[in-house]
Design brief:
Strand content: under 5%
Order of helices and strands: HHHHHHHHHHHHH
Radius of gyration: 32 Å
Helix content: over 70%
Largest sheet: none
Length: 392
Amino acid sequence: MKPSAPPPVLPPPPPVVRTRGEPRLPPPPGPGPRTATRGQRMALVLGLLAAAMFLLWLFSAILTPFVLAACIAYFLDPLATRLARLGLPRGFASLLLITTLMALALIALLLLYPLIISQVGTLLARLPSYIAGVGSAVQEALQALEQRIGPEMLNTRLRDLAVSQIGAILSFIGTAATRLIGGGYALFNVFTLVVVTPVVAFYLLRDWQAIMLRIESWLPRRSAATLRQLAKDTDRVLSAWLRGQLLCCALLAVYYAVALSGVGLELGLIVGLAAGILSFIPYVGSMTGLGTALLLAVGQFGTWNGVGMVAAVFVTGQVVEGYIIYPRLLGDRVELHAVWVIFALFAGGVAFGFLGVLLAVPMAAALGVLARFWLRRYLESPLYLDPPRTGS
């Protein structure tokens, strides 16, 4: 076997000849840095937050139907995934769920809207008698209190002032309710939501998995695992609270409307539905519904028996919510404190109106997960574990 020939020796490249005064060329650029600096990462995070806040402020007037559609798609995504696993195409399953939801909403609107309008008419017709009934009941109670504590503590002028203020409050509630239901701007917004929201919700629900995968592919590789875990924790907290709270509000709305109408309260339907819907805000909905129902009961019945029946309805509702509905639907999976939720809802409403209310709970859930993550990091860091100094 002949040995292979050695490779040919190439001549060295000719030397570069430069004339006098010719500038020296820089060496070819090498590969860029493979790791980002801390400043670059902070600039990316702050830039994304600033861009998100600017876009939210700029398009806040038109974002409500799109955010509501995203909430609907997020709520229905588990059902769409189950239907897809059963063999239905994702697009057909999304169309079926959105159509079913819209049909249920339309049926509820056709059934409830005439009743609500009739109760608003009853409120307008009976409002003077309600005010008179509440005023007489308050005046009797103040007279009894005056007999017990003496006229020097509660005079007639103060008693008349309290009666007139309660009448003004009832009058304001009645006029505000009629303006809210019959206002043209509110009807225009409802029409816009009905037209735009279902279409956007269908496309988001159909492409939800693809959208999530695309967003996941954009995560920075260095922090992808941490961000993915934070997203899973946020989804766990948000889904447990949102889906459980919506079902809880629906059940409470049906219970309060039926129970208050059953005890004979003329405006029991509208007060019960409002109390159930406002239960989305912890404690606020039930307390608001209780106060409104008690005032209407005093004005309508004029006796403490009717007021006691209305109070019993709300006490029973709170017991059922606290010991049956809430533990079964939410349990201990919810890691959002009631005070934090109330603050987030009111802060979002003040900042961006109804759009801020829709975004408040997701942002509260995300901030809560981030706070717990950084708290765990702090408890594992030398800032917390550094032993105390001994000696001088």
